[in-house]
Amino acid sequence: MSKNKQLPKVAYFCMEYGLDDSLKTYAGGLGILAGDYMKGAKDHNFPIIGIGLKWKQGYTDQLIGEDGRPYDSYHNYNYDFLEDTGIIVKVQIRQREVHCKVWKCEAFGNAPLYLLDTDLPQNADAWITGQLYGWFGEERIAQEMVLGIGGIKAIRALGLEVDLYHFNEGHALFAGFELLREKMEAGASFEQAVDQSKEEIVFTTHTPVIQGNESHPIDRLLYMGANLGLTVEQLVLLGGAPFNMTVGALRLSRKSNAVAQLHGETANKMWAHIDNRSEIVPITNAIHLPTWVDQNMITAAEQDGDLWEAHLKNKRELIEFVKERTGAQLQQDKLLIGFSRRAVPYKRANLIFSKPEIISPYLEDGRIQIVFSGKAHPLDDNGKQIVADLVAMSKKYPNAVVYVPNYDMATGAMLTRGSDVWLNNPRRPKEASGTSGMKAAINGVLNFSILDGWWPESCEHGVNGWQFGDAFESEIVKEQDDHDREALYKVLLEEVVPTYYNKQEKWVKMMKASILGNKDEFAVKRMLEEYYEKLYN
Ligand SMILES: *Cc1c(COP(=O)(O)O)cnc(C)c1O
Fold this sequence. Notes:
The protein is an alpha/beta fold. Helices cover 41% and strands 17% of the residues. The strands form four sheets. Strands 5-6-7-2-1-8-9-12-13 form a nine-stranded mixed sheet, with helices on both faces. Strands 16-15-14-17-18-19 form a six-stranded parallel sheet, sandwiched between helices. The protein has a two-stranded antiparallel ribbon with strand order 3-4. The longest helix is centred in the C-terminal third of the chain and has 26 residues. The two termini are 18 Å apart.
């Protein structure tokens, strides 16, 4: 019997999918994970389908204005590579019928992905699938209703057989409400419907930042019609009041997972006070190697080829890319640090600049060059200030600091291949996983990172990269920042910089250790196998 006959058939629900830059259905790490998962499912022949939304304008195209501040720009995108399934399903939103067209995408070496689309002439609410993470509370619920409720209806209309529904993040929770509704309509009580639905739902929780876990006033759910007939008491039993989407998903699933070992500990502490919730097991994220990793680097590492030459080729490509996108000219023979992350305070993009008297001399003579990228959420003024500060730094040190606007998959791939070092300095333990570090590691780009997310699972300090901060944590933000800043400078200036300039042989040995030690452990095949073993079993 083939493997597929024995394995449960999984429908994966996610707000975003990062499959390719031409399909604007992603914003960041969540979408990249979902995209890599779908590609891995195809490569390794797992019986998985995906459900998502066809975003007309995607996430923001974020550019830098003349004043050095980011601004958001939106365009309508057309995708001629999507296949029309001919299916339209209807979802009642705010007591109005919304038609959702179902497209199928298999264009990027991925398992079948079905994308729902409300941009139809017959819809008064055609805007619902307009902007990913755009707008505000009611609109977000409308989008999540299309994803969850529309998604289940699409599965039924397409006649797809599904054993398990996997909600990647709480956004998809209304799919669980639709499963309850189906069972209650067929005669089950609420309690019976919950028990039965739980058996077929699994959940992946992501951000350990409380505010990142979406909640809504109960009234708003009722007004939108998202409750699908559930009473206020039943809603509160599931998600509390205000209604928390993560809590709801933890209570409506038979098992959940966190996205790294450390995140597993953090998530279990964070949700310890929630009763009747599913167990949270850690399954560390991974990446789709063909999308992110230069095979020449793996081959050179395995066959004792010239790793340094192979790396320099990638570094030159990055330098060329940076020149095209920004006009800045970086040097091939100087240390190049890459940093690309969402612009949010806890990721501390500015930490390396926070004692100018220490870092300036290195930036002035170009011994240290840094390339930044990363968008702020369109509604986040703090995040936009972080970007503006980075842009200001690039003007102050034009030969050493660069900000590449409009972070996308192409930028991510370039930076994680062509940098020498990958810097990551979140306030521990707020980084759930951090897959960009895996991309870097397997490309021979040495991680230089706080022990957060996936890095504690891989780091051998001075052997395959470096840690700094020794896993220090403090409730007092200033104390943590002061501590980590000192640690960053110490390791950077006493270990990273001298190794780069004076011990090239050791550097290349570290690159090799980084590639060989991470290429299997953090490849999507391992993650999928673990999902089947620990979550789908
Ligand atoms: C890899 C990637 C991410 C996720 O990386 P993190 O380490 O979680 O920041 C986000 N966005 C893009 C474009 C990527 O390529």
